[in-house]
Amino acid sequence: MSFTQRQEALVNSSWEAFNQNLPFYSVLFYTFILEKTPAAKNMFSFLKDSNEVIQGNPSANAHAKMVFGMVRGAAIQLQVKGEVVLEDNVLGVVHTQKGVADRHFMVVKEALLKTMKEVVGDKRSEEFSVAWETAYDELAYAIKKTMI
Ligand code: HEM
């Protein structure tokens, strides 16, 4: 898998913009997920007790930060060594326990890409979307390999 320095830079700079406005983009991300899959609400401990995605929920923000941050980390790994390697199988265990399936990975991918398009606005390009999509796909593949 070849991932260029330019792709990595695109992911990195937009991730920083995402992170600077985390509470806002976190709400957008979960809203996109729930639009597609309302039932996903019951999967997340921090969503299941409320009727809307509340801005400023610390657990929701922390989770969004981890997901986007890990995709950014995957982009760095891809650029440096051409593959994404997880340190352990914790994420496989957590997601198996939560009942996460392939279709959920697709929904989260779409939500992540839509959120990142909002982050960069007019500056979005095909190259930008492909960079985020590739990094996400490779990370999701690495997680799925550790799911039983
Ligand atoms: C938890 C990352 C995809 C649902 C977590 C955690 C991380 C993470 C780091 C915390 C694990 C811990 O407790 O130590 C990711 C990444 C993903 C991904 C990087 C994709 C590349 C998904 C998908 C779903 C999902 C597709 C289902 C829609 C959950 C749930 C939890 C969780 C329900 C537990 C959170 C809670 O309720 O507190 N994820 N995840 N994740 N993830 Fe994911």
Q: What descriptive keywords fit this protein?
A:
Globin-like; mainly alpha; metal ion binding; globular; 148 residues; binds protoporphyrin IX containing FE; transport
Biggest sheet descriptor: none
In total, how many beta strands? 0
Instruction: Quickly give the CATH architecture.
Output: Orthogonal Bundle
CATH topology: Globin-like
The SSE order reads: HHHHHH
Low-confidence stretches: none
Bound molecules: protoporphyrin IX containing FE
CATH superfamily: Globins
Question: Total helix count?
Answer: 6
Shape: globular
Approximately how much beta-strand content do the residues carry?
A: under 5%
The mean pLDDT is: 92
Q: Residue share in helices? A: 55-70%
Molecular structure report:
By secondary structure, the protein is an all-alpha fold. It has a single domain (5-145), classed as Globin-like. The chain is built from 6 helices and no strands. Helix 2 packs across helix 5 (102-120) and helix 3 crosses helix 6 (126-145). The structure holds protoporphyrin IX containing FE.
